[in-house]
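Budget justification aside, the reviewers requested a transparent look at the raw inputs and outputs of the sequence design task funded under Objective 1. We therefore reproduce one unedited record. The lines immediately below are the structure tokens for a 286-residue chain.
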């Protein structure tokens, strides 16, 4: 299979890393390539364009605050830069975690340029929402992670950044899957990539403030006719299952696929459910 690796220039000049595979008639754009390599299997049926958002993965390291301060809204613009670069009439999107929210923001900003959206373990529409225990899965694994993070951040002297990144990932992998014994199946640790070593700073300084500043209009969400498939593990500890329920209830044309025995990366816990559902969804034309 032919693979194209290149960089695409965003509207403000930031260089975005792109990995393009396959030659199917349907093109799917997947942000955060650094974490989404499992989805390359879709290239047997579709054209798949994975790319790293600004200041993520192998995209350009950005130091200009003017090119970071709008956080998730910069990411929305970068998706459209990718769409326009590849001359796509419409962007079909797969967004995981907070990028599941980003995909909806893209559809709200560019409804005429949006095809179909798959959200996987998407962050909730309102970041401040607190869900009841049966929809949030704050279990013993989550408690152990919180304790480990406290120890990590209290380390004295502080750990060297790459080592802190490796330890962080060794712990967060246990959260991502339903059973901590399957943490090894999360087969990526991005701590050899500069942007990912320092991602927490970008998250806290730019992305989270922009997300908490959102005020999504319920009427706009209801009026959105873009087809959306929301795939959500019922044991998700990071983006609570209640978030998937909210998206399915609020969006005008959404369907929820709740997956038993799956957490934040349901394509690892239940690949035989997730990937066929995605294939069927993007093959559908109605």
């Amino acid at each position: 299979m032919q693979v194209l690796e290149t960089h695409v220039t965003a509207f403000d000049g930031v260089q975005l890393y792109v990995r393009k595979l396959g030659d199917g008639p349907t093109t799917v754009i997947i942000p955060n390539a650094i974490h989404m390599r499992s989805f390359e299997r879709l290239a047997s049926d579709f054209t798949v364009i994975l790319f790293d958002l600004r200041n993520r993965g192998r995209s350009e390291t950005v130091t200009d605050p003017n090119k970071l301060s709008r956080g998730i809204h910069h990411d929305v613009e970068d998706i459209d830069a990718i769409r326009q670069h590849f001359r796509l009439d419409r962007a079909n999107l797969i967004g995981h975690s907070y990028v599941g929210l980003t995909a909806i923001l893209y559809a709200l900003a560019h409804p005429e340029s949006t095809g179909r959206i798959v959200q996987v373990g998407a962050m909730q529409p309102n970041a401040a929402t607190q869900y009841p225990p049966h929809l949030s899965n704050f279990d013993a694994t989550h408690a152990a992670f919180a304790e480990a993070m406290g120890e990590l951040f209290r380390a004295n002297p502080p750990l060297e950044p790459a080592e802190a990144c490796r330890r962080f990932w060794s712990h967060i992998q246990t959260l991502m899957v339903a059973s901590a014994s399957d943490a090894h199946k999360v087969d990526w640790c991005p701590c050899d990539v500069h942007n990912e070593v320092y991602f927490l700073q970008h998250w806290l300084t730019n992305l989270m403030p922009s997300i908490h500043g959102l005020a999504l209009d319920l009427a706009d969400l209801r009026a959105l006719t873009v087809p959306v498939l929301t795939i959500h593990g019922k044991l998700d500890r990071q983006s609570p299952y209640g978030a998937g329920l909210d998206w399915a209830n609020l969006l005008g044309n959404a369907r929820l696929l709740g997956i038993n025995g799956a957490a934040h990366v349901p394509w690892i816990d239940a690949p035989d459910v997730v990937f066929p559902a995605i294939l069927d969804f993007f093959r559908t034309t109605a």
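The chain has one domain: 3-136+194-283. The mean pLDDT is 95. Computational costs for records of this kind are itemized in the attached budget.
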